[in-house]
Design goal:
Largest interface: A-B, 29 and 29 residues
Low-confidence stretches of chain B: 92-144, 234-242, 251-255, 635-656
Helix content of chain B: 40-55%
Mean pLDDT of chain A: 84
CATH superfamily of the largest domain in chain A: Response regulator
Strand content of chain B: 15-25%
CATH class of the largest domain in chain A: Alpha Beta
Largest sheet of chain A: 5 strands, parallel
Shape of chain A: elongated
Mean pLDDT of chain B: 76
Number of domains of chain B: 3
Strand content of chain A: 15-25%
Strand order of the largest sheet of chain A: 2-1-3-4-5
Oligomer: heterodimer
Chain lengths: ~240, ~650
């Protein structure tokens, strides 16, 4: 999941970027209104964390402009302006959430996760696919009752696939949503992480859940795709062949 | 001060009551006086009229009485004169003539025994000499004065029923004749009647013993005619029977009786040598007196009626005046009460109406709150008297609103500038503590926290500095300071920062300029100005610092080539919490306090700070500090002697 953090106070931006990345988010940082606007309109993010008192362009103006232009990304306002008026105004201008400084990092992360779920129209924090359980709140994964330990990157990849269960996600999509601007774009990094994930999730189980579509990308097996399905089998064959 | 409304009303009503009372009193008194005057005038008029009427009546009475009396007197006199004219003396012949004499009935006393109407013949000798008067020596018989009356004239006077009575006296007081109407009464002759002149009439009233009151006239009349009876011997001597003149011897005549009236010799009358009689004529005056009494009664009664009518009219007038006054009093009371009542109601209304703008103003003022500084009152509805107040109020509210807005903005700024570092601090520590870290990572986190702490410290220091300035608690810790040197030090401090931004800093300075001031505060001032010069400069711009002597002062100019300051912003520039750009520029914790502190410190040090700017080209801040007195004297010579050293601090211009 990819987050844009528009925050002019550099130590805070640094700390938040670190915190979010350790939770598996890809984080882009903008230090003023202009930069924030540029990044929000040129890249695709799951959530934008927006400070209000920004140099050059005020946060509320940015929000207003984005909503006017039809930007659908969820926006969480993170600001020192904590009065009722400010909050109401922020929410009325199109923000999805509002958090005042100082804040608890855990709360911020939870709110960001909630926004991500909302972005994929998921209400239940636990996503179940066949015998796989992904707890998006606790960021834990079980298969057939057994805990699977994943690194943040692996988890983020699995969660991204899970949000798109039954649908093919392309490599650029994965790249866009899981890697920030500072990551080096090497073409096979996605494939490497898919292999790691398969080793942890599918290895030792009869039904492979991570499927490969040649020339397109990857997908997580949907609930209606049984083991006997043609495409599923083909995918499996392909994957096992790989 | 009590309620204006109440005071106005009470004073107004008191004045009104006073005016009404005075007015009513005047009207009442005026009317009373007028009515009294009318009454008095009427009464006087009535009195006069009554007197006049009385006089007229009296006059009428007197005239009537006099007329009546005069008429009576005239009638009496007429009667008496008529009678007198009928009087004549009967003559008795003195000659002795034999004659048969027939006695006329007018001599009743002589012939009484023979009865009236029977001619009596007397034959004898009669004296033939005709003499006047009755003292004829030749007459042997007794002299007798008889009076003869013409019967016709006297007839009615002799009637018994005639109201007139008469009585004739001779000079001896013997009664010679009297009217039959006198009856048994006697008309007395007054003694003083003898004093009367001939033919003089004397009128008086007389009371008869019978109680009859009479009006009486007394005339002393001479007998002017003689009644002569002659005895004529024969008829042919008729010629001789002419009336004999006195003194002429009568011719002997036949004895035939002939009576004639012969006038008495006028000379004799003149001499008074004729017999005289008192002729008294009278008439009862009861009738006249009765008439007069009636008249008197009538007059008195009419006078009484008149006076009664007047008295009644006066009484009515008096009563009417009293009633009119009472009615007037009642009306005045009613009118006064009505006016007073109407004024109470109207006054309340008027006062309320007059004070309503105040109420509106009060309402408008009470609607003002820290959220809404608008004075919601229609200027057209404000009366002239309140306009200055409203205008002042508006101005005060407007400036209050501005100050409030600025304070609000400042509070938001401060809270932002305080919360943001604190949030950073917390976030950094929380993120750091989420999992075990390497010592390198911890060191980084602690380093970040130190930075944030330093920022917070700066901010808090500035806030405290301002608070101290406000409280007047800041004291200058003066020491000799070389201003150019201090400027150099400050420039040295900010030099790395300037270099980081690619700015070149140039210092232009004189030789040492020593002043007694607080070095720490001056450093703070210059650092602030330099920080601004860096912060708001354009990339690769230039900063000039010029320290020079001026007229009795030392001048430090900090000039940049930045974005400049708009003229409208310049006047607010040194105000606390004022920021040209309300959004934040960088993470420097200025919070709009830097220039406020600069101004506060410079003024504390006895100097001035000014700003000049061309938007888009740069700004120039000039700080002037006073030189000590002895310094400023030889300032000019030093200025000339000291060479100007220009130190260029190399800007970091590595970029092309």
């Amino acid at each position: 999941m990819k987050v844009l953090l528009v925050e002019d106070h550099k130590p805070l931006a640094r700390a938040l970027k670190q915190g979010l990345e350790e939770e598996g988010f890809a984080v882009d940082v903008a230090v003023d209104g202009e930069e924030g606007n540029y990044k929000a309109t040129t890249a695709s993010y799951d959530v934008i964390i927006l400070d209000l008192m920004l140099p050059k362009i005020d946060g509320l103006q940015l929000l207003q402009k984005w909503r006017k232009e039809g930007l659908q990304t969820h926006v969480l306002i993170l600001t020192a302006k904590g009065t009722l008026e400010d909050r109401v105004k922020g929410l009325d201008l199109g923000a999805d959430d509002y958090l005042t400084k100082p804040f608890e990092v855990d709360e911020l992360l939870a709110r960001v996760r909630a926004l991500v779920r909302r972005g994929h129209h998921v209400k239940d924090p636990v996503i179940r696919i066949h015998d796989l359980e992904i707890d998006t709140a606790a960021r834990t994964v079980k298969r057939a009752g057994k805990w699977i330990h994943l690194t943040p990157r692996e988890y983020a990849l699995l969660e991204f696939l899970a949000f798109h269960t039954g649908k093919v996600v392309t490599r650029p999509m994965i790249w866009e949503h899981l890697y920030d601007e500072e990551d080096e774009n090497t073409s096979n990094v996605v494939d490497v992480y898919i292999r790691y994930l398969r080793n942890k999730v599918d290895k030792g189980y009869d039904l492979p859940l991570i499927l490969t579509r040649w020339g397109e990308g990857y997908m997580l097996r949907g609930p209606d795709m049984d083991g006997g399905d043609g495409p599923a089998r083909a995918a499996r064959e392909v994957s096992s062949g790989y | 001060m009590r309620s204006i409304r109440l005071s106005l009303l009470v004073y107004f009503l008191a004045l009104l009551a006073l005016a009404l009372a005075a007015f009513s009193f005047l009207i009442h008194e005026n009317s009373r006086i007028r009515l009294t005057q009318i009454y008095e005038t009427t009464r006087q008029m009535f009195t006069e009229e009554s007197q006049r009427s009385r006089a007229v009546r009296e006059d009428h009475y007197v005239k009537t009485r006099d007329t009546l009396k005069k008429n009576l007197d005239d009638a009496l006199l007429l009667k008496a004169q008529t009678m007198a004219s009928q009087l004549a003396e009967s003559d008795i012949r003195p000659e002795r003539v034999f004659a048969v004499r027939v006695l006329t009935p007018i001599m009743p006393t002589l012939l009484a025994p023979h009865g009236p109407g029977v001619p009596a013949y007397f034959a004898g000798f009669f004296d033939t000499e005709l003499r006047h008067g009755w003292s004829s020596p030749r007459w042997t018989g007794r002299k007798q004065l008889d009076l003869a009356f013409v019967d016709d004239v006297l007839y009615h006077t002799r009637a018994e029923r005639s109201p007139f009575v008469f009585q004739v006296y001779n000079e001896q007081g013997e009664i010679m004749a009297r009217s039959r109407s006198l009856g048994e009464e006697n008309l007395p002759l007054d003694k003083d009647s003898h004093e009367l002149k001939l033919c003089e009439a004397d009128f008086d009233d007389v009371l008869l013993p019978s109680g009859k009151k009479l009006r009486r006239v007394t005339i002393r009349v001479p007998i002017t005619r003689l009644s002569v009876t002659r005895l004529w011997p024969s008829g042919d001597r008729r010629r001789q029977a002419q009336p004999a003149l006195p003194g002429v011897p009568p011719t002997p005549a036949p004895l035939r009786a002939q009576t004639s009236l012969i006038p008495v010799d006028p000379e004799a009358i003149q001499r008074g040598d004729v017999p005289k009689v008192f002729l008294l004529y009278a008439k009862p005056i009861a009738e006249v007196e009765e008439t007069l009494a009636e008249l008197r009664a009538e007059l008195d009664s009419s006078q009484r009626i008149l006076e009664q009518a007047q008295a009644q009219t006066l009484e009515e007038l008096n009563e009417q005046s009293r009633l009119a006054l009472a009615a007037l009093r009642t009306r005045l009371w009613l009118i006064s009460l009505g006016v007073f009542g109407a004024t109470v109601i109207g006054g309340v209304w008027v006062v309320r109406w007059a004070l309503s703008p105040l109420e509106r103003l009060t309402d408008a003022v009470s609607q003002v709150s820290e959220r809404d500084f608008q004075l919601r009152i229609d200027p057209d509805q404000v009366p002239e008297e309140l306009k200055p107040i409203v205008e002042r109020l508006r101005q005060s509210l407007a400036s209050l609103e501005q100050a409030f807005a600025r304070e609000k903005q400042a509070a938001a700024d401060i809270s932002h500038d305080l919360r943001t570092p604190i949030a950073s601090l917390l976030a950094t520590t929380q993120v750091c503590l989420r999992r075990p870290r390497s010592s390198e990572e911890y060191r980084e986190a602690i380093e970040t926290c130190r930075e944030i702490g330093a920022q917070l410290n700066t901010l808090v220091e500035r806030l405290l500095a301002l608070a101290r300035l406000d409280a007047g608690a800041d004291r200058l810790q003066t020491e000799p300071v070389d201003v150019p040197e201090l400027a150099e030090q400050c420039v040295a401090l900010i030099r790395p920062l300037a270099a980081e931004k690619g700015l070149s800093v140039h210092v232009e300075r004189d030789g040492p300029i020593l002043i007694e001031t607080d070095a720490g505060k001056l450093r703070e001032v210059l650092t602030n100005l330099l920080d601004n010069a860096i912060e708001y400069n354009r990339p690769h711009g230039r900063i000039d610092v010029v320290v020079s002597r001026g007229q009795g002062e030392v001048e430090v100019v900090v000039r940049d080539t930045g974005i400049g300051i708009a003229p409208e912003a310049r006047q607010h520039l040194f105000e606390r919490f004022y920021r040209v750009d309300p959004s934040r520029h960088t993470d420097t914790p200025h919070c709009g306090l830097g220039l406020a502190i600069v101004k506060g410190y410079v003024e504390l040090m006895g100097g001035k700070v000014e700003v000049d700017s061309t938007p888009g080209q740069g700004s120039m801040f000039r700080v002037r500090l006073p030189l000590p007195a002895e310094e400023s004297q030889d300032e000019a010579s030093q200025h000339m002697a000291t060479g100007r050293a220009v130190t260029e601090v190399g800007g970091w211009q590595s970029r092309p």
